[in-house]
Specification:
The structure holds two protein chains of two kinds. Chain A is mostly helical. Chain A is built from two helices and no strands. In chain A, helix 1 runs antiparallel to helix 2. The two termini of chain A are about 25 Å apart. The radius of gyration of chain B is 20 Å and the shape is flat. The N and C termini of chain B lie far apart (about 60 Å). Classes of the chains: A mainly alpha, B mainly alpha.
């Protein structure tokens, strides 16, 4: 069970929103957007791997070749 | 009692999404995709047992494997289509969800073509 992935994603989301607010307060708008983009990319990487696992499992169970 | 685990997980993730959605809606969508995937992976192992039973029954009743495989493929396509469409609709993209469902319907129809042809052939043979 990869439940820890869910909590990792939620943690990254909260952390990103904190960083975004802090960087925005410091007047670094472009860095704030880069930070958001980086977090989004990391999470997307995990989600895409999990989706690939799901699709291969569905293909093997339902014999969708 | 896996259902209690799954319901509890659903509640917790719903709360997390509620917290995160106001700040970062894109991460909230990704959490919901992850939850859907995790739950389906949990359930899939059990579906496989039932499907193996169906295959055994079809073997015993000497039903051709082709029919059963076609039905299973259709179920698989329907599930994946539904999954993709729901994720898109949750993110507010109803148009893309509609296109995904359309593609799924067309693919299911293509898979059903051999069976439809067989049925028509049988009917034509029955008519003198």
């Amino acid at each position: 069970m990869n439940l820890d992935l869910l909590f990792k994603i939620a943690g990254v989301g909260i952390l990103i929103s904190v960083f975004h607010t802090a960087l925005k307060q410091a007047g670094k708008e472009d860095m704030a957007h880069l930070c958001t983009l980086a977090g989004f990319t990391i999470v997307l990487f995990w989600v895409v791997q999990l989706l690939g696992q799901l699709f291969t499992t569905v293909q093997s169970v339902f014999k969708l070749y | 009692m896996e259902i209690i685990q799954i319901v509890g997980l659903g509640f917790i993730v719903t709360l997390l999404i509620l917290i995160i959605r106001s700040q970062r809606p894109e991460i909230a969508v990704q959490i919901s995709i992850t939850l859907a995937t995790v739950i389906f992976l949990l359930v899939l192992a059990k579906i496989e047992v039932v499907l193996n039973l169906f295959r055994d029954l079809a073997d015993k009743a000497s039903v051709s494997q082709m029919y059963l495989n076609t039905i299973l493929k259709i179920i698989g396509i329907a599930y994946i289509t539904e999954f993709g469409a729901q994720v898109c609709r949750d993110a507010g993209e109803g148009a893309i969800a509609g296109k995904i469902e359309f593609a799924g319907k067309v693919l299911v129809m293509v898979l059903a073509v051999p069976i439809i042809a067989l049925v028509l052939e049988t009917i034509v043979r029955l008519i003198p």
